Amino acid sequence: MQPIDFWYSIGSTYSYLTVMRLPDVARAAGVTFRWRPFNVRYVMTEQNNIPFKDKPVKAAYMWRDIARRAARYGLEPDLPAAYPLQGLELANQVAILGVEEGWVEEYTRAAYQLWFEEDEPAGQEPNLTLALTKVGVDPARALTDARTPRIIDRLAHETAEAMKLGVFGAPTFVVEGEVFWGDDRLEDAIDWALNPSPA
Amino acid sequence: MQPIDFWYSIGSTYSYLTVMRLPDVARAAGVTFRWRPFNVRYVMTEQNNIPFKDKPVKAAYMWRDIARRAARYGLEPDLPAAYPLQGLELANQVAILGVEEGWVEEYTRAAYQLWFEEDEPAGQEPNLTLALTKVGVDPARALTDARTPRIIDRLAHETAEAMKLGVFGAPTFVVEGEVFWGDDRLEDAIDWALNPSPA
């Protein structure tokens, strides 16, 4: 079976839930995921899709909903987390470097843990250095590489690829062209991967 | 146990799923629901919350997602359905009359079935007459009563009440002040009703 593409941005709030529970879910279901960081802010700005800014009622609900869902998953976030992230681009440039070098998953989880559980926003210091150190990567070297045109271009390329697939938010799961949006569609995506059907 | 408040508008797309499956879900879970029509368009306009207009990618996903979810529930909608509804207000004024007279649930289901499965938009003819006839109500009488200031005021009052509770979209379930938004939170709302917890 093909791995399920897990499209996310460090910066997406609901992606916290997926990032933290994905290893357990993958093991239990016997499926694998390919972690694909992209720039969700670019996509949403392009599509005039602004879910929370100037929407205080909906934003308050979002945090409450994440708190309830986190409790179900045994997570203990300290909410609300800083939002929106000022360092979204850099956080995801580092993640792209992590894809190339094989530490994207651990870095992403460390960055979210610091952001959602220890009040250190991702994509800025000390989150960057702490998260990279935690996964055994030299922060100075990685942060230099993550700022190169090659990595910036690759993030843009991945973002364009996501848009081509119909991705408009994060997290999104793509299974053989079928798009599932939201942490709450993870189980549907897995069902689809295990039993493709022409609904 | 108190009934769970089911806030919805005839006009909401995802409410189709809830309206059609709620009787089975209620029976299986041993819970009851109070059907509370309100004007979700008023609330969303007030809150500058515009989910699908001028968002073709997200709108296309919404229909696909509803199709997949409907298949899970054994429903057979003919999608996309007409959207947005021109007769949203009148459709819900009739529903408010149905609350007073005890036929809101059957009317709502008939209106959605005609709209989503037989391409007859709710809130206009022939949907209004067909749905009312199906539930055994004289359409001429009901449509006259549904247009009275008393019913118009009551819909506005219910809409204000929904906003006071923190409702910002439809469908929404409210359990002792706790708000759950979306057909995909119905099970969470039921869990909350059965096992209230301080998440």
TrEMBL record, chains A, B:
GO BP: glutathione metabolic process; naphthalene catabolic process
GO molecular function annotations of the record: 2-hydroxychromene-2-carboxylate isomerase activity; glutathione peroxidase activity; glutathione transferase activity
Active-site residues, Swiss-Prot/TrEMBL: 12 (nucleophile)
Keyword field: Isomerase
Keyword match Isomerase: yes
Protein EC: 5.99.1.4
DSBA-like thioredoxin domain boundaries: 4-187
Entry's family note: Belongs to the GST superfamily. NadH family.
Protein name: 2-hydroxychromene-2-carboxylate isomerase
